[in-house]
Amino acid sequence: MQIGTEIIICYTEPERNTKKEEILWIESFEDILRSYLIQIMPVPLTIKLVSDAFIEKETWKNTLVCIIIVSTGYNKKNTLVQKIKEFGEKYHTEENRSLEKLYPIIEVLKKPIEEDVFLNEYKNTQKYEFYIINNITREIEELIPFLGKGSKNPYWMNMLDIANHIKYIYHNLKHENQQSKNTYPEKEELEKEKTIYLSITEHDLVNQRDTIKRELVRYGYNVLPTTPLPQKNEEIESFIIENIQKSIMSIHLIGEYYGTEAQENKISIAELQYNIVESYSQNIRKQTNHFLKKIIWIPQNFQNHYEKQDIFIDRIKTDINTDYFLDIFQGNIAELKELIKKEIHFLGEQFKKKRHQTSAIEKKKSIYVIFDKIDTDIAIPIVKFFKDMDFHIITPNFETNIIEMRNLHRIYLQQCDASFIIYGKINEQWVLSKIQDIHRTPAFEGTYSTKKHGIYINNNSDPKKFENKLLHVTYNNSDFYQSILFPFIDTIESK
Fold first, then answer.
1. What DSSP string runs through 283-333?
2. Which of 439, 458, 457 is nearest to 449 (CA)?
3. ∠ CA(354), CA(290), CA(251), 5° rounding?
4. How far apart are CA 302 and CA 281, in angstroms?
5. Residue-wise pLDDT tens digits, 374-410
6. CA pseudo-torsion sign 121, 126, 131, 137
7. ∠ CA 62-110-210 to the nearest 5 degrees?
8. Packing angle between helix 154-178 and helix 206-218, nearest 10 degrees?
9. Does the pTM of the predicted model rise above 0.70?
């Protein structure tokens, strides 16, 4: 596909009584965008302002991105509607299907819109809100560039986001042109590995969401959703599921304000998204043996004044006991960014390892041998025996940090065919916590109930303590000998 070098900014002719202010806002938008693009783009781009009165002459032959300024009269101009749809068709053909995720149509919203009937049929649009809603008065305040820079005014951050979005489109088109046109089965999965669902928030958390989104984009991730939730209640669930299906992780920001209640059951947008994502996550674990990592963030100095918000947060804390891939984190936004950075690095490493697994290993049944570093001497002959029996063995990684060890432990429990806890010098409380982890893991849900789990006791503890914990108990208070593990091997082979 030809890479254009033009940015077209479309707008409707303002009403006579607001014309001066509107034109000034649009021209400032153009000037600021140009200054950002000069700094970050590897090639010079041309910016054209085109009103609805002249849009009919536009051919889009050299257009990279189309930006629409949404203001009065936005969806009333049929000529403008048709011409922008014409541009959208460049990215909406079968040949360019993979390019739809680039979102080449950008909508700059100066006010809320009830429903985007304008480009409703296109999913490849990106919206940026240039307004805020006062949490107390609920009045709409338009963002302007003349008051404060940087974090003091979200206008400037939005402008930087748009410039980076244009750069992202350019680089992806350039990369696409360099690649073979042949498709490959793993392409969709590879795209999913670089996509994260960042929940839509109320206006009290818009700045925090934008900050996290910026960070994720900087790491090279696509962030969904790119558009607001649908206005029609019956479309909300399918919209969220469609976006979460493309993602490897979801991040949910929970603030002090309970928020606008959506749907007939009168729950907030934040709670609604969480409910749908959590339900979807449970289903895919049962059906496909895959997991969806979820992070819930609550501000550090959280002071809630809404009973419904308290109930919602308490339910999330309860869900943690049964969902091993759900984390709740309370802290400042900088700490959240660090946590996310570690999590996506970990997920990236897991996908990389998964892609490089040999077919021979994939055919072998795997045993996750769980032990503390203090019991390494007991674990060594057991691990060797399992390997000699032609099992793929997974063991703890003691050289990583605590967060990665915890995440790896979850992944291993979910991916293994069997697990085997070693109880030697380590204390009983540690062992009980590992047994609880096994009970919490998706391996004990739905189709995973056939997985086998065992414990090897090499001390003076009473083995009867563990007989009712869904484990195969192997007791040996002396030196290791191989035949003692044959009964556990039989339980795995009989699956």
1. HHHHHHS---EEEEEEETT-----HHHHHHHHHHHHHTTT-TTEEEEEE-H
2. 439
3. 100
4. 27
5. 999 999 999 999 998 889 999 998 887 777 788 788 8
6. positive
7. 85
8. 30
9. no
